[in-house]
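Example S7 (structure tokens).
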């Protein structure tokens, strides 16, 4: 159920006393130039200086400031708001705190690979504790966009390509940020963004148009927002893109119809940065006033950075274009949000310099960051059991990420404490005897360019080593906002390094750093072992060493499909069925590329452990499932290896015949199980009609009676299904 904003008499007594300018002011969000921290993450528009910003606060023209940090200066902003503005309304202080504040946790895509929503809840809680200590009330996270095209750079900020996984992580992150009590000094308001279908931008090009079927919008892109709202999120941010020709930021059907109407969302809708202004560039609004009217009338409460609401809302209300009641309703929501987090009782909430100086959380959060990082890695391949490595092996750590500290955080880390970042080299040395006296470390090349003599040095080190740990991948700035790629491959200089090192014949473990699924090529694809490490955050080096040496066994699974080739994009495992699927012995005139099958190189859900896990057959308790009943599915999972594992057991379903073409498989459940060597456990999942629902051909939502296949399996392509029939309603 969505969280409601309780009525507050202080809010009701304020609204009639506010001027139109003060009302519009409460709906304005501006860069916090008093505590300017991250001016470079957004294009500069209407950036004022600190004096002007404080003047606006004093005049009651600013309701929210964003992307500043610091308790002391935050107190001064708040003092001006409550003591020097006419009505003394406190300001909200917001920021992009996406995957950690001082302690940096793995990028959200990486953390989704843990298949542990509880972990995301804990890292979000830790983030909230650090952010609220640093003078922030509200974060612009979680991003809950479903990313089915790996060319798009912002997949790094979400939970990957799957709806079910996306919903579970969206809800967990909201719970973690906001905590159990909104009024607590360490509760951080969450924002589900970017509403909606931002991940469906055409060709994976950021900000591009979105053409999408209603069923796909409803079944794929809307559910994570619903999950976030149901978990209590009190803010939603609109997206930059249009949807079938109507910009998301002026989309009445979605903002008012779906969000407020169907879902009863009671919180605030904030624009993305200058998204109302961009209605003009879209060619949807003629001018500023028109853009303001369209955005506000559609349901956007708060305007970020354009200044349009302050400039045009008063006149629009005076002229009758916008009813006063509608303006008041938006103002009521913002003021109620301020009341709900306790700002009217204590405007200095989360602005306590003593709490900011107190770093007693540090040890616990570092341990959590290390654990989150090792749980996020995915072992794609481990030929001959090359991993884990022996500590007495002669190891050559090669690659541009070996000593690097500038590509540890991943995108959207504005406030990380760099002094605490652990490089790969530092992590490996700490884990090896004598500080890694026998470890050889060679850069080999730059992130994008060759290094003079780099390959020669790398080859020499590889020749003398028992094993090469090759740290290659995408520079950090290749993912995140405005970072779309046409070729999702390694930079050529790194690929050349990999080829030269592999040619020595020394076994290679690839440590892949990446903000998206990549199309692996040549020596990187063919290495004996591949460990996907995403961007793991502050504790990168220690966490990687834990996995390399087997102090922690890898347990992550791919939240995105790794394709054979960039040209397959958009490729996602749960694609609708084609009329001409490939068959093992029939490939002509089938849905395949000339070069590749219509499959992933490493599918969604794939990931190895250091154990040997075997799945028994999927069984169904009764193949006849009543309309109001449940399908009960079971399988026995056994670790027949010699090391303990944590296994992600996944449940997939497929609807055999339906009124709309259904996906080949869809994830409907998962469980992460610890299994000791020799241990077997029976896993049970239950599916009700609601789990089988989709947007039917007539536009209604629900399941359709008929036969379904279900797999309990280690990935989206593994296993043999059991079948059950959902019987029609009786009578
Ligand atoms: C633009 C980004 O799209 C959004 O995610 C972010 O929260 C805002 N800028 C504010 O920095």
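Recovered sequence:
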């Amino acid at each position: 159920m969505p969280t409601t904003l309780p009525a507050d008499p202080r809010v009701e007594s304020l609204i009639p006393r506010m001027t139109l300018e003060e009302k519009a002011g409460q709906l304005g969000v501006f860069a916090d130039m008093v505590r300017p921290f991250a001016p470079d993450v957004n294009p500069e528009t209407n950036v004022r200086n600190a004096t002007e910003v404080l003047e606006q606060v004093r005049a009651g023209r600013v309701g929210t400031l964003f992307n500043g940090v610091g308790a002391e200066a935050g107190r001064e902003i708040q003092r001006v708001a409550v003591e020097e503005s006419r009505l003394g309304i406190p300001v909200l202080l917001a920021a992009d705190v996406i995957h950690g504040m001082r302690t940096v946790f793995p990028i959200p895509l990486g953390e989704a690979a843990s298949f542990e929503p509880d972990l995301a809840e804990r890292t979000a809680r830790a983030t909230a504790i650090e952010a609220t200590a640093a003078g922030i009330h509200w974060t612009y996270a979680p991003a809950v966009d479903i990313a089915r095209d790996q060319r798009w750079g912002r997949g790094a900020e979400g939970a990957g390509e799957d709806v079910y996984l996306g919903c579970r992580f969206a809800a967990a992150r909201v719970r973690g940020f906001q905590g159990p009590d909104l009024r607590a000094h360490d509760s951080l308001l969450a924002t589900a963004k970017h509403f909606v279908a931002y991940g469906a931008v055409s060709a994976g090009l950021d900000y591009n148009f979105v053409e999408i079927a209603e069923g796909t919008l409803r079944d794929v892109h809307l559910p994570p927002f619903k999950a976030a709202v149901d978990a209590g999120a009190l803010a939603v941010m609109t997206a930059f893109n249009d949807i079938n020709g109507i910009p998301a930021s002026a989309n009445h059907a979605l903002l008012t119809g779906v969000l407020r109407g169907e879902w009863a969302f009671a919180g605030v809708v904030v624009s993305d940065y200058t998204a109302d202004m961009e209605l003009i560039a879209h060619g949807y609004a003629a001018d500023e006033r028109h853009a303001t009217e369209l955005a506000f009338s559609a349901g956007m409460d708060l305007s970020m950075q354009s200044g349009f609401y302050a400039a045009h809302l008063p006149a629009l209300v005076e002229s009758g274009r916008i009813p006063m009641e509608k303006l008041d309703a938006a103002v009521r929501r913002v003021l109620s949000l301020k009341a709900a987090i306790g700002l009217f009782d204590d405007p200095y909430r989360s602005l306590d310099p003593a709490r900011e100086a107190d770093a007693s959380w540090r040890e616990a959060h570092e341990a959590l960051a290390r654990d989150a990082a090792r749980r996020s890695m995915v072992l794609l391949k481990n030929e001959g059991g090359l991993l884990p490595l022996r500590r007495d092996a002669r190891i050559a750590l090669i690659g541009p990420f070996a000593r690097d500290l500038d590509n540890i955080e991943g995108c959207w880390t504005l406030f990380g404490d760099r002094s605490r970042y652990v490089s790969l080299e530092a992590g490996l040395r700490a884990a090896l005897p004598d500080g890694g006296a026998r470890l050889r470390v060679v850069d080999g090349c730059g992130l994008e360019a060759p290094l003079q003599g780099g390959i020669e040095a790398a080859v020499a080190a590889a020749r003398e080593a028992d094993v090469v740990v090759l740290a290659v991948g995408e520079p950090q700035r290749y993912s995140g906002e405005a970072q779309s790629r046409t070729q999702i491959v390694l930079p050529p200089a790194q690929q050349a390094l990999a080829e030269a090192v592999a040619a020595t014949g020394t076994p290679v473990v690839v440590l892949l750093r990446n903000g998206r699924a990549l199309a692996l090529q040549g020596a990187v694809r063919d290495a004996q072992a591949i460990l996907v490490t995403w961007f793991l955050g502050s504790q990168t080096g220690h966490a990687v060493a834990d996995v390399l040496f087997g102090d922690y066994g890898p347990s992550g699974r791919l939240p995105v499909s790794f394709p054979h080739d960039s040209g397959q994009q958009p490729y996602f495992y749960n694609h609708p069925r084609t009329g001409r699927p490939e068959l093992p012995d029939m490939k002509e005139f089938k849905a395949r590329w000339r070069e590749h099958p219509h499959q992933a190189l490493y599918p969604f859900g794939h990931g190895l452990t250091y154990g040997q896990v075997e799945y028994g057959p999927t069984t169904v308790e009764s193949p006849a499932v009543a309309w109001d009943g449940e399908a009960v599915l079971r399988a026995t999972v056994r670790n027949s290896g010699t090391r303990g594992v944590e296994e992600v057991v996944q449940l997939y379903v497929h609807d055999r015949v339906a009124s709309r073409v259904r996906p080949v498989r869809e994830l409907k459940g998962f469980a992460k199980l610890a299994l000791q060597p020799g241990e077997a456990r029976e896993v049970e999942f239950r599916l009700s009609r609601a789990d089988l629902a989709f947007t039917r051909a007539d536009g209604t939502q629900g399941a359709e009676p008929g036969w379904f296949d279900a797999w309990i399996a280690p990935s989206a392509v593994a296993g043999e299904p059991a079948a059950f029939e959902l019987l029609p309603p009786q009578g």
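Notes on this example. Residues 375-568 form a domain with the Rossmann fold fold (CATH 3.40.50.1700).
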